[in-house]
Request: fold
Amino acid sequence: MIKIFHTADLHLDSPFASLPPSLSEERRAELRRTYIDMMKYAARENVDLVLIPGDLFDSAYVNRDTAALLCEGFRQVGCPVVICPGNHDPYTPDSIYATGTFPSNVYVFSDETPSYFDFPELGVRVWGAAFVRKLMENTPIVKVPKLPEDRINILCQHGDTRNLLSKKCPINPRDIAYRGFTYAALGHIHLPADPEVIDNTTVAYSGCPVGRSFDEPGWCGALLVTVDDGRRVSWERVRFSDKRYMVERLDVTGAASYTEVASRILELISERSYGKETSLRVVLEGEVSPQLRLPLTNIVKMCQDAVAFLELKDRTLPIFDTSYLENDMTLRGAVYRELAPRLHEGSQHERSVAAEALRAALAAIDDRVIFADAVTEVGENEGVTK
Ligand SMILES: [Mn+2]
Reply:
């Protein structure tokens, strides 16, 4: 039986550019701590092999202290550590992989053509193909020959099984199974589904060990994998994040005041038992009166102590009880009638923009202040690639 610890996509030394410098340094320190926690765990569990299929670092440039810490962790874990550089940390001549001095138990793939490391004492051969630049358009796996059955063949690869047109090493899991791998340790997808079993092959993404933003919500971790003497694979997820991001949608239809919205947010926080371990984004939705102002900064102040961090997005539509506007003969009614088709039938983006326009117009007509923080940001996270 062999025990494997599989982690990927740690993105050490991420810039966290959206945060103020002190907070971003705190986050980087958390990532480093998570790495150390993982190596301690792997040592405690007496694993035979650590597999890191890519994006261990966020970029090719690595802080000297981070590199020292990394070496220390690898030394402590003792067993062989196999790294396959990914699209964020490709094996380039000036990368840490080429220039750093890792302990002798660390094995790093350096070629775009598949190659392998043999571990005869474990009866294991580990295959992989390194990213040597940010893209890998072809599928190196198809160049792997049909594998001999006298040992456990493992793939350690950064790549994308979701999209065969991906420019980040597209992989068809069936190709992995066809070649006869027992286990494929993959990296690249940060929030993966459970491992997939095809014939005698288990194809698994570990996901990222800790979420770095609202794009990566929930508890994260790594995989502890066992291959028994009959080459049956079992796995368990081990949580390594002690903080998490969560995103909630809250329907505030009919809310009469912003304090009512604040108490609905507090109710939601208490219902879900969120506390200081959770950074929370609440997307406010539903239909509210066009008169209702949602000063997000004030609402955040009223609720933020309940969680680690609170962010609000206003996606409400100011069309609750608009019967009076439909027949209003002043400029207010004219603006409403002009925007009504988009408010009611447009795409989500059109509805949000029209809602914002209606709010701004009504505020301007009443000579009220227009709050800049109510500006909608539809789809800002769509199409994010990791
Ligand atoms: Mn990644």
In short: The first strand starts at residue 2 and ends at 6.
